[in-house]
Structures are given as C-alpha cells and as structure tokens.
Amino acid sequence: MKQKPYASERSPAPIIAVLVVLIAVALYWWHNRQQQEAPPPPAPAVAEAPAPTVEPPPQPAQPEIQHPVTPPPDDTDPALAAGDLNAGLMALLGNQTVLSMLNTDHFAQRVVATVDNLGRSLAAPAVWPVHPAPGRFTVDAKGDRLYIGAANAKRYAQFVKLATAAGPDRLVALYRKFYPEFQHAYEEIGYSRGYFNDRLVEVIDILLATPEPDETPQVLLTQVQGPTAPERPWTRYEYADPGLESLPAGQRILLRMSAQDRKTVKDRLAAVRAALVSNPS
Fold it and tell me: Which residues cross the membrane (predicted)?
C-alpha cells in the first residue's frame, strides 16, 4: 500500500492558479490607475481660420475736369504783370471802378461763392463781390397788378457798364493767371473734389438759358404777419408767375433788367464762355 504524500509534496497547480489570479487583478488595477492618472490625449489640431479681411469702401473717383485752365502766356499787359489779384483788377478796370463797385475783401472767395449761388435758389448779397445796386427796387402799377418798374434799368446800368468795361480776352487772361486762388477758394467753401472753372461754365450756361418773357414780369408783394411793419418792404417782391419764381437766383436777377441790358449781359457772358473753353490744356 502506497503512502500518501506529505503536504509539502502536494501539486503546485492550486498555488499557480492563485498567483495568476493575483497578477491578473494587479494588472487590471495598475491599468485602470494609469488610465486615471494619465492626461487626456491632446485634441487634434484644427487649422485656425484666417481673420476676415475688410476692404475699405470704394472712394468716389476724382471728377474728370471738363474745362481745364492753363496759365496765360507772358504778356506786357499791366493786369497780368500785377503781383496780386486786386492790383490786377485795378490795372484792368481802373482804380475808381474797383474801389467804388467791387468788394475786394476776400475777393476770390466772394467770386466763387456768388458764382455757385447764382446757379441755385438763393444768392445772398452779403457775399457778392460787387456792391448791391443803389436805390430801391421799384414797381409800376397797371390796374390792380404790379410789374417790375422801368426805372430799375437805371439801377443796373452801372453793372452792365462794368460787365463790358474790359474785353473778354483780357478778363479771361487775368482770371487764368490767378486761377489757383479761385480754385483754392472753391475748395475752402466745401468743394474739395470740384473744379471751379467747370462750375463757372455750368453757371454761365444757366444764365444764358434765362427765359425771355413776352412782357414785363408781374410781381407780388409778399405779406408778413406781425404787429410791426417791415422796414424795407421793397425787398419782399416776388414773381407772380410760379415758374419764374422757381428759377435759379441768377436768372431771376437777369429778369429784373431791361430786355436790352439783359441781351448785352448775355452777349458778354457768351464771349467769356468762348474764351474760357477755347484754352484746353
């Protein structure tokens, strides 16, 4: 009969099984711990979208010059030899005429502002380069209607004389020599991108298009409500015809002249225009 083996001699299989289980548990615990302690993997890199580009708003194109002005050639004309605009005016028109009729204070600024206003609804006398016509605006009554008075022609006679005092070529030559002053003044009053000579030609065309009424225009005296009577009622006349009253300021002024004086002024304006546009650069 065989003897049973001693305990020390028992098979190692159960022990190995226990070790395998312990190792498996240890490995499982270590793996989970590593997973908990390890930092999360970095997020995949995403290419950053470029910042949107903002294009500046388009700038308005510089207006094309229609009637460029070039300096006049050297000449022996005293007006062109003058060192400044006022001296040139005196050489062209005479000292007495300039001092009595022109407002030479900021003359270039007054000219560009008045020219621009003549093509609009209002031309304030405060900025005119000439002194206002003397006397009062008068009317003639025919029945219960009022018309521009024939006596007004005398008030405008000196301006017609001034308009024809110098030939168009000499006048335009003086204007061309001192044109930079007029252009600078035009920019100063708010037309930084405009060309004054183009506006001058445009306004001359407006004045030349002044209608010729079949008869002396009828006027009305506008009523002013209030306890105090106006001190200068003769300044409140307006054209009875709404079509005439809505005309640009320069045309309304020309309609106050006699038909003959208006023709004289238009003829001179046409001659000046021809001289202005016949000298392109």
Answer: 12-30
pLDDT digits (tens, 9 = 90+) for 193-224: 899 999 999 999 999 999 999 999 999 988 76
Q: What angle do CA 98, 103, 107 make, to 5 degrees?
A: 100
Sheet holding 218-221, edge to edge: 139-142, 145-148, 218-221, 237-239
- pTM summary value: 0.74
Instruction: Report CA-CA distances (Å) from 153 to 138, 258, 280.
Output: 10, 6, 37
Q: Which of 118, 132, 76 is nearest to 249 (CA)?
A: 118
Interatomic CA distance for residues 115 and 109, integer angstroms: 10
CA dist 143 to 6, 139, 152, Å?
A: 160, 12, 20
pLDDT at site 33: 46
Q: Which helix (H) or strand (E) holds 15?
A: helix 13-37
Residue 76 token pair? 């022996």
50 band by pLDDT with thresholds 50, 70 and 90: low
Query: Over pLDDT 70: what percentage of the chain?
Result: 73
CB 188, CB 232: distance < 8 Å: no
Hunting for tokens 């009637």 — which residue is that?
A: 67
Tell me what pLDDT residue 62 has: 65
How far apart, in whole angstroms, are the C-alpha atoms of residue 200 and residue 87?
A: 23
- 219 in helix, strand or coil? strand
Q: What ranges make up the beta strands (E) of 137-261?
A: 139-142, 145-148, 218-221, 237-239
The Cα angle at residue 99 between residues 94 and 103, in degrees rounded to 5: 120
Task: Read off the DSSP letter of residue 135.
Answer: S
Q: Which of 107, 118, 111, 108 is nearest to 202 (CA)?
A: 118
Residue 101, both tokens: 């009729």
The answer to whether 86 and 98 are in contact (CB under 8 A) is: yes
